[in-house]
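Tip: read the tokens left to right.
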């Protein structure tokens, strides 16, 4: 027994960290401007130890043959809702919030997490639970403890909006009923501050606010909205979040919402469909990020327009030139889909790549939006979103060359997370 203990202390690395070598047909490391061609990635335990040439692979090594595949960093989706399973219409949303218990919704969330991981998403920022309280903290815990498979999660818990401005709307049902809400409602700076403190105490990594509502097209052709918070309220939220070393995500669709959210201290603008050049310049100046979520906008626009929300469709029709302008101006655009806003089973999150390329990114820029740029958004540069020495071994492989045909990102055939093979 004593001898064994001595051995254990003498050779801890040999005993504990297993080495695996991924033989890559073509390596895209997330960082370099070009693909690196044939390389081998040495994985030791949870981390990437080094990148070597094929002829340096030791004869007796434990090799995984991906020599006919393109190998990339594990993907990061910066905007998801695992507690939601598609809501084109208010009915679909209400049905989930009113008819499904939080335990039932959490079981469904575990399926969503597995789907995401199998599609190559090894990290997700989940931006609020839509009425499922702190169930996202439990999902994250279950994944981290190995109870269920899923991406590494950064969670925002309940989301915050001011009173009366978020579904389920009070006017939709009898006023005798007290309808549950998809967010935590606040009134005034003190309640806003309290909500931030409360959410952080229960495990929020991010604070999510809904900055504007009621979108419309103005006579001059631009889009307007109503800011949801008073200056005191949004300042209180931002100040308390940043002071607690957390980060603020702001749902904001038009310049009215985007500008005051950015000025208050939001790190990310979610959707931003009617983004203006002034907003783009401020994003660049602040080093903040735009998360455009085009997959969901494309998915819901027509359905919502039919139901009378015409402004959604109008904003979407003008999104392409705006996106192109933002790319030209050097706005940090991070990959986000709003999965959960669409059914996890119906659409792959990777569909988002095709929109980015169609709208003006190079395939490499699109890939980096879901790797290094997204890691930067999470303040995890060097650890996530890249295949470099010392980063977490979150690695995927796809059939074909996504730099030629970006749709290849939808055919993930290998997934490793934390050095552990999740799909092969
Ligand atoms: Zn969302």
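Filled-in amino acids:
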């Amino acid at each position: 027994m004593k001898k064994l203990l001595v051995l254990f202390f003498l050779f801890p690395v040999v005993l504990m960290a297993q080495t695996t070598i991924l033989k890559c047909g073509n390596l895209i490391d997330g960082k370099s401007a070009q693909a690196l061609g044939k390389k081998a990635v040495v994985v030791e335990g949870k981390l990437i130890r080094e990148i070597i040439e094929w002829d340096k692979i030791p004869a007796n090594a434990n090799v995984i043959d991906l020599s006919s595949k393109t190998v990339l960093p594990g993907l990061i989706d910066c905007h998801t809702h695992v507690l939601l399973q598609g809501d084109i219409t208010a009915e679909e949303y209400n049905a989930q919030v009113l008819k499904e218990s939080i335990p039932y919704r959490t079981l469904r969330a575990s399926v969503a997490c597995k789907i995401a991981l199998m599609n190559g998403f090894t990290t997700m920022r989940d931006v609020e639970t839509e009425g499922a309280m702190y169930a996202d903290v439990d999902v994250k815990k279950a994944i981290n403890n190995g109870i269920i498979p899923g991406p590494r999660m950064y969670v925002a818990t309940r989301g915050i909006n001011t009173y009366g401005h978020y579904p389920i709307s009070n006017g939709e049902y009898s006023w005798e009923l007290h309808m549950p809400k998809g967010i935590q409602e606040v009134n005034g700076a003190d309640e806003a501050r309290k909500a931030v403190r409360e959410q952080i105490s229960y495990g929020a990594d991010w604070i999510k606010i809904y900055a504007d509502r009621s979108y419309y097209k103005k006579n001059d052709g631009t889009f307007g909205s109503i800011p949801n918070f008073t200056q005191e309220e949004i300042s209180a939220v931002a100040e308390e979040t940043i002071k607690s070393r957390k980060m603020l995500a702001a749902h904001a669709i038009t310049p009215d919402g985007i500008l005051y959210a950015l000025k208050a201290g939001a790190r990310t603008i979610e959707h931003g469909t009617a983004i203006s050049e002034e907003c783009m310049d401020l994003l660049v100046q602040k080093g903040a990020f735009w998360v455009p979520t085009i997959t969901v906008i494309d998915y819901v626009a027509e359905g919502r327009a039919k139901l009378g929300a015409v402004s959604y469709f109008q904003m979407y029709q003008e999104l392409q030139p705006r996106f192109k302008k933002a790319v030209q101006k050097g706005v940090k655009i991070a990959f986000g889909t709003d999965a959960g806003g669409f059914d996890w089973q119906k659409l792959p999150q990777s569909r988002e790549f095709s929109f980015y390329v169609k709208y003006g990114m190079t395939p490499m820029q699109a890939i980096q939006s879901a790797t290094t740029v997204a890691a930067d958004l999470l303040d995890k540069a060097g650890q996530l979103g890249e295949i470099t020495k010392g980063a977490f071994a979150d690695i995927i492989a796809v059939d074909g060359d996504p730099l030629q045909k970006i749709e290849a990102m939808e055919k993930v055939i290998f997934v490793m997370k934390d050095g552990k093979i999740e799909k092969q």
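The first helix runs from residue 2 to 10. Residues 79, 81, 127, 338, 341 surround zinc ion (CB under 6 Å).
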